[in-house]
Write a structure and sequence with these properties.
single chain, 271 residues, alpha+beta, Rhomboid-like fold, 3-stranded antiparallel sheet, two-stranded antiparallel sheet, 10 helices, disordered C terminus
Amino acid sequence: MIPLRDNIPSRTTPLVNYTLIAVCTLVFLTQLTDQRGGGSILVERYGMIPKRVFHPDQVLVRAERVALVDNFGRVVKVVERPRELARTPFTPWLTVLTCIFLHGGWMHFLGNMWFLFIFGDNVEDRIGHFGYLLFYLVSGVAASVVHLMSDPASQVPTIGASGAIAAVMGAYSLLYPRAHVISLIPLFFFVEVIVLPAPVFLGIWFFLQFFQGVWSVTSTQTAGVAWWAHIGGFAFGFLIAGLLRTTGKTRPPVEQTRPRADHMMAYRYQR
C-alpha cells in the first residue's frame, strides 16, 4: 500500500519535517558520489554496525569483489578479497543516530521520504516544531537500539530513516484515530485507489512489519531489512504520543478535513 494523502490539513507550515527531508536528500546525494567497491564509505563510517558498537576496538572485514582482467582488458575472473571496513570518526554508539540519515538506494530513500511527507506534517502540527524534532531524533535512536539488541553480532551496516518514520506513523495513529488515508494498492496488473481509516492503514502496515520481524528471527536467512527497528519505532512513537497527549503537551486535534478527500471517500463507499 502506498499512501497518496490524508484528509487532515496541517494548521502550521511543517518546517522541521521539510528540513528533515532536505537533510536526508543532501546526505543521499552525497552518498551517490562516495562509492568504493560497491559500498558507500559514508555507510561504513556512519551506518550502525551492531558488532562494532559492542566491540569498538575490533577490526571488521568484509569480502570485496575484484575483477581480474587480461592484457586486452577482458575480465577473466572475479575474486573476493578481504577489506577492512572504514572506521567511524567517533564512538560507534553515536552511529545509532547518524544511521537514520543514510539510505541504501533510490527506492529506500524515496519511499521513506514520501511516508515522512504524508504523516510527518500532522504530527509536527500537534506537538510543535521543537517537540517534533526532539521526538524524531529520539525515536530514531530508540528504533536503532531495538534493532541493535535484536542482532548484536551483525556486521551489516544498518541505515535508513525507517525507524524514526515508523515512530511518526505510530504517533499519527494515536493522535488522528479518525483520519482517513487515500491509498494506492497494486493488485497484480491493476492498481486500485481506495480510502482507508488511518488506524486500518497503519495497523496493516504494522502487522506486516511484525510478521516479517518474527519470520526473520525464526529464519536462517539473513534479513536485508531492519524489521525490528520498524516495529520498535512504531511502538515507541505510539507510546510517546500517548504520554504527550495524556499530560496535555499536544495541541487540540484538527476539526476540519480536506473536502476532496471526504468526497472521494464517499464515492468509494457508494460503489
